[in-house]
Amino acid sequence: MQRILFLQLPRLENDLDGEEENLHLAAFYLSHALKKAHGDPGYTFRSLTHDEEMLDDAHLLDLIIRWAPDVVCATLYLWNIERTLHILHHLKTRIPHCLVVCGGPEVAPDHPFLFKRLIADIVVMGEGEAILSDILQALKEGYRTDYTHTAWKVDGTYQWGKNHTPVVGLKELLPPPEDPGWQPDSPQGMAYLETGRGCPMRCSYCRYSQMRRRPVFSEPAPILQSVKILRARGVEQIRFIDPTLNANPSFDILLKGLKALNSDHGVRFFAEVQADKLTTDQIIGLANAGFSELEAGVQSLNADVLGRIRRPVRVELLEGNIRFMTDQGIRVTIDLMYGLPGQGLDDVIHSLQWAERFKNAHVQCMQTLLLPGTELRETKDQWGIESDDRPPYGVRSTNTMTHGDIRTIEDFINQSQGSEGMARKFVGYRLLDLFEERVRVPIHARSKDKILPGRSSRRALIFQGSDLYSLRNGILDTLRQAMEEEPHILWQFVLMPEYEEPLDLLETMINEIRNHPIHWLDLFAHAACWDRIASRRVFVHLTKGRSYSAGWVRAAETLLEDHFY
Question: With contact defined as beta carbons under 8 Å apart, do 74 and 7 qualify?
Fold first, then answer.
């Protein structure tokens, strides 16, 4: 019996108040597809629990090695690809016979480093439910499949297949509503439903429509049955993860069914919609069915920009519908973007000011990401787009938007909306942003055989003493070891001084952190525009019962604010 590990590492964030979200739908769908294809397939499946996936790399690797998988199926996103490949590389040195199959949104032929690392044995682009069984059978019997969206590693390179990948309807792909795997996915009672696959829009910055040219949708009956069962299982919120819920031809029928099933609004629904295409009756139907939040992708009000990215919006209808949705008690999230082809600073500021006029609406303006496999990435030279070639692939400038313009936009967003994940305070008796795992570190020169205390992927190391400056070499050794041994996790280095320490101590710690390769989290514009570091931060936790001069506290706070996010 072969052991299959479905590996999907979470997105690590500094924000302690946000909901942790790492949907294991790929593992759920793929394991169902294997069982359906073989009945008793002769496989043992395993995914990581929430506690396991929050381990640091060393403990996570030890856990995987103890389970000794024969095959690892890894789902790659921009926020986990570097870390996942790092772990898989070390796994294959420890278990050479373990085979790696990679899928997920990051798999694209033009990926900047996935195929150069030569870690994956097979990569699958797009949907995998219909072909994973064939891939595992081929691995078992020693041959290769020949699908266009699948590449096999052969003699130090990857060979793509020639035959069309099977296209299967949702009814055949998804586990049935009664499957016990449909459960709340978070402590908040959240569950997720996919009722359509593919997208009717062809936005140049997105890959969603490219993998399935013709969208397919579930009929209302199985959707309503899923909602009924999830209600009975204690779900409080359901997110429809379709890119455009109202693209479903049976949308009106679905709303009527949801209203009848959820008349008490015992479950709150969330969905993304093409807001300018909603009718008044449909908006009333959404409110009556229990949709408490809708997300409307607008991106820009500039018709020329929208034409370049192939995402037309009828602004007058959009405005009226957003107002009507908020009047119906629906919280609307308005999505905007900056860094799109031909977009200028004035365009973005105008769109932001327009969006902020809507009462009870939430506005989020996102940096354009030049994702592998997208048309926008292929045509970037046409628009003079400069971007990072590492995740998150953020656009840094275009021929109509300078780096200074992007900094102005980020400053405008920060002033009007605030910034998620930014530390509220770096120096104080009470620091609200410290991670849950806080470990005190003995301060001495560290040798390589010393093991860093702790085990989580978000960790605060506490250095306490009455003369920390004299112990700075030991502190710097610990920082160095932490970042070298665990480069992909989030670190907080916390001083707990008995008395005021020279600010030179903070400066030497900052310099040590800057001497190491940056984390993907540091490349987002909200940190990168000011050359601040979000992934490894220094804090000063003042000791209770001790007094510190206001001037020293202000100077330390200012210094840390200048370098950390």
Answer: yes
Residue-number span of the structural domain to which 519 is assigned: 427-563
Does one domain contain both 486 and 455?
A: yes
Same domain, 136 and 260: no
Q: What is the greatest pairwise CA distance in the chain?
A: 73
In the 8-state DSSP scheme, what is residue 426? Answer: S
pLDDT score at 81:
98
Total number of residues shown for the chain: 565
For residues 267 and 281, give the distance between their C-alpha atoms in angstroms, rounded to a whole number.
21
Helices 315-327 + 280-289 axis angle, to 10: 30
Q: 0.85 cut: is pTM over it?
A: yes
404 CB contacts (<8 Å, ≥6 apart)? none
Burial 183-201 (b: 16+ CB within 10 A, else e): ebbbeebbbbbbbbbbbeb
- Residues of the chain with pLDDT below 70 are 1, 19, 39-41, 186-187, 210, 444-449
Burial of 298 (0-12, 13-18, 19+ CB in 10 A): buried
550: its two tokens: 């206001």
pLDDT of residue 408: 97
The pLDDT score that the predictor gives to residue 168 is 86
409 and 432 share a domain?
no
Q: What's residue 67's pLDDT?
A: 96
Using an 8 Å Cβ cutoff, are 457 and 54 in contact? Answer: yes
CATH code where residue 18 lies: 3.40.50.280
